[in-house]
Amino acid sequence: MSSNSNISVGLLGLGTVGSGVINLIENHQEELVHELGCGVNVKGVLVRNLDKTRDVNINPEYLTTNPEDVLNNPEIDVVIEVMGGIEEARNHILKAFAAKKHVVTANKDLIALHGAELHQAASENKCDLLYEASVAGGIPILRGLSDGLVADKIQKVMGIVNGTTNYILTKMDDEGVPYDDALKEAQELGFAEADPTADVEGLDAARKMAILARLAFSTPVDLNDVEVSGISDLELTDFQYGKKLGFTMKLIGIANFDNNQVEVSVQPVFLKSDHPLANVKNEYNAVYVNGEAVGETMFYGPGAGSLPTATAVMSDVVSVIKNKLLGVNGHRFTKPRFEKVLKKPENRYGQFYFRLHVKDEVGAFTTISSLFNQLNISFERILQAPIKPENRNELAEVIVVTHETSLDKFKKVLEDLQNVEVVEEVKSYFRIEGDVE
Amino acid sequence: MSSNSNISVGLLGLGTVGSGVINLIENHQEELVHELGCGVNVKGVLVRNLDKTRDVNINPEYLTTNPEDVLNNPEIDVVIEVMGGIEEARNHILKAFAAKKHVVTANKDLIALHGAELHQAASENKCDLLYEASVAGGIPILRGLSDGLVADKIQKVMGIVNGTTNYILTKMDDEGVPYDDALKEAQELGFAEADPTADVEGLDAARKMAILARLAFSTPVDLNDVEVSGISDLELTDFQYGKKLGFTMKLIGIANFDNNQVEVSVQPVFLKSDHPLANVKNEYNAVYVNGEAVGETMFYGPGAGSLPTATAVMSDVVSVIKNKLLGVNGHRFTKPRFEKVLKKPENRYGQFYFRLHVKDEVGAFTTISSLFNQLNISFERILQAPIKPENRNELAEVIVVTHETSLDKFKKVLEDLQNVEVVEEVKSYFRIEGDVE
């Protein structure tokens, strides 16, 4: 056995995740020694209330209400932030870096908002900042993107990274439940919050995709670089057409990287039904990764939960300690290797679905198809469907599925469709994904 | 940057995987330095023919036909075995350990056959023996079982770990192609070998499951502990009943560990169609892991291929070097922590499907159900179906789906069914899996 001396860690916060971390450390000393050549001790825990009864085996003298007892404790090498919130957590972490302590956090909102600043501070102090648990707690995805595939170049990351919306979309798609009812059901089951905005408008997913893209491609993507649209306007009609066409509706985060140019978006997407992500149902999350060497892989798991999150935190703690013992702190997840260059619309490609309400008159169809022809966008399929009785006022519903085209052409044809007289309304449009590459 | 001095590795074999490893090392020096604090050099490659033209950038003076130049080269710390075969590879690896070199191998057959001996030799010499690439090359699963979930206790591993059989079963299930035709198609596409025995009889999957179980549970499972049955006798009739019942037929490796008792099997299983593994199609592989802390996760990816394999080999090389620098070689993947105790049939549980040909006479049904009742096995469903015209000689086809019962009761009722007079024949029986735990 190696003679590395024990490493001490401190916690900010002792809720369910914090308690889980302490229990994991306590119950896995032997495994930790196997991995690290040393044990791990908890030497300080910041709490709000010293007198609260806690279901965790911790020496009470290590509990404190004074952050300095953790952040400036010379015995502590690694600070584990599991308190949540933004400003206080941010200040504590910056102080920890100033005191040359490494930081592990599960705080997604903090990383998405202040990731660049925190990375900068970590880097200046040659410290590690790790946050596996901040994205899809139960999926060891960040580790997959770094350790496991250390020698690979990631080209594409596609993810279902929000359990609330995936639950709602599963209900809509599998059972034909309208959006409002599906949301209500999700709220009753505890899968959606009373104010579901951050979830259903795609913001939570966008935060996670910014983090994933930054790590997968080693380029400093932040939340503002992510194009976001949510699911609150989705109509069952499109789900029904999707079924006919072999598509499943999912809120998908897509991050692409080629020629050192990056694009990141979160949007409702029609996934071809045989794509592995199409079968990820209910509150589950999954991240699909396409690497130059490894090809397609996917990680699937629960999106959240305090035990998965604690496990992910512990993984990061182990990595930080390894890095410390190896003398390589301050690199991984920290310094982006590529400048950020956002991909221009003319270099972004996709297949698209349009649902149009079209005036039922001679030549209408020719007019529409010529709009696409002018831009060299070819059709994969066109459906013309009867409109429901109440709307049978001389309108037809037309579904257009294009072949792959650039995003600028898509935007142009969308504008043209909205301006041409025979089109009464562009009811909806979605990106289509899912060809196996 | 740390001042660890460079680490040198040697290769046994320079086929597509070996060349891939050299290219990855060459093209990722910067990332390797970020991870390790040092670079990685190739200082010896055992080949059969020095004069062959090779598509790889290696100093010709490092190529050799003499194994000693790698195995006893004092500069080399890590030996990478990518030559394949059994006896020669085994002897080389044992020599490498004797010379205190760590070993990374992609050789599944070797590990399944001689894993115990090689682990023993590694352990005695305080060396690492890693073989991520030997199981499902494209899925970073062994890493998931160790690093990523370092602090978790794995309870169950279920895997589709053979691409050939998964391709055949997908054809049979999705398109109703009979076994022989599906096999032929797989052979034509290069997914099955001319002699497909090792794949279709489940041996290849059994080797991988033995390796996965050993790692997941840290107990010395070997190939002989795996109960194996293959897919060559499967009939489309059962696939059709499966569809009606909401099941998909898959060749599944199942490894369970509770109360420190292990069971491992490979067999055709009826998976409930909403289980994530049920949607893993064609030649893809996936491994589903249930951990105490993390809950359900799944890893999905290509089962093989030289680039994924080379990437997995590189992951292991990075781990070995980290362990060396940390002074913790000789532990991970090496010393099992639990004695092997195989689970007894009375402690093994499952749901089962039976297809019976039953004499169409008064009381037959009562006789059958009383066999189950006597053993306290309850029914989930019973179907009685018309038998096809050509067999309509007073026989009925009866499908029984049980609730969960122990394996010894299953075996007893199977024996009873085979011996009772009203049952003309037990046509087939399968384990059912897929309740989300």
Automatic annotation (TrEMBL), chains A, B:
A Pfam family that the UniProt record links to this protein: NAD_binding_3
Transmembrane region(s): none
Reaction(s) the record says it catalyses: L-homoserine + NADP(+) = L-aspartate 4-semialdehyde + NADPH + H(+)
Entry keyword annotation includes Aminoacyl-tRNA synthetase: no
Any GO molecular function: homoserine dehydrogenase activity
ACT domain span: 353-434
EC number: 1.1.1.3
Pathway it works in: Amino-acid biosynthesis; L-methionine biosynthesis via de novo pathway; L-homoserine from L-aspartate: step 3/3; Amino-acid biosynthesis; L-threonine biosynthesis; L-threonine from L-aspartate: step 3/5
Highest taxon of the lineage: Bacteria
Keyword Amino-acid biosynthesis: yes
Names of the cofactor(s): a metal cation
Keyword list, A-Z: Amino-acid biosynthesis, Methionine biosynthesis, NADP, Oxidoreductase, Threonine biosynthesis
PANTHER family for this protein: HOMOSERINE DEHYDROGENASE
Family: Belongs to the homoserine dehydrogenase family.
Annotated protein name in UniProt: Homoserine dehydrogenase
Species this chain originates from: Virgibacillus alimentarius
